[in-house]
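Weekly modeling sync, notes
Attendees: S.R. (lead), two postdocs, one rotation student

Agenda item 3: backlog of single-chain predictions. S.R. asked that every request posted to the team notebook include the full sequence so nobody has to chase files. The rotation student volunteered to paste the first one in as an example of the format we agreed on. Action items at the bottom.

Example entry:
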Amino acid sequence: MADKSVPTLFEWLGGMPALDRLMSRFYERVKDDPILAPIFANMSGDHPHHVAVFLAEVLGGPTGYSEQFGGHPRMIQRHLNRHLTQVQRRQWVSLLLDTADQIGMPDDPEFRSALVGYLEWGSRLAVINSQPGASVDQKAPMPKWGWGEVKGPYKG
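Predicted structure, as returned to the notebook:
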């Protein structure tokens, strides 16, 4: 049973307003990034909010991404055949963390360690799922990230 006195990562970072701020600012910066701009050149205007809703669910917030967009299988599907590289992945993580600093997200070591852990795991999974031959498991559960431990089927 979860300890209700410990906030989720979603609560700790400031909830949906903070994630929307983060992703809006991040994708504004992506447009000027020579490594990332080509990947997101045809990004829809609601892409930043969709990613914020996904991150909210992963970090312990509302389950809106699963309810509205199809959960983790949908996110995996969005990466199929994108041929992402490690250079692009590292730049994505780096720029996102720099943007978190820029907008004043919590910078305590415990939160940042958990956030970096998820971004490393998730971005590496995105690269794997973007390569030729990758497929979507329609039953893939949504990852749930917490304070230093992975919960669910993804734990090692």
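Discussion: group reviewed the output briefly. The mean pLDDT is 90.
Action items: rotation student to repeat for the remaining queue; S.R. to check formatting next week.
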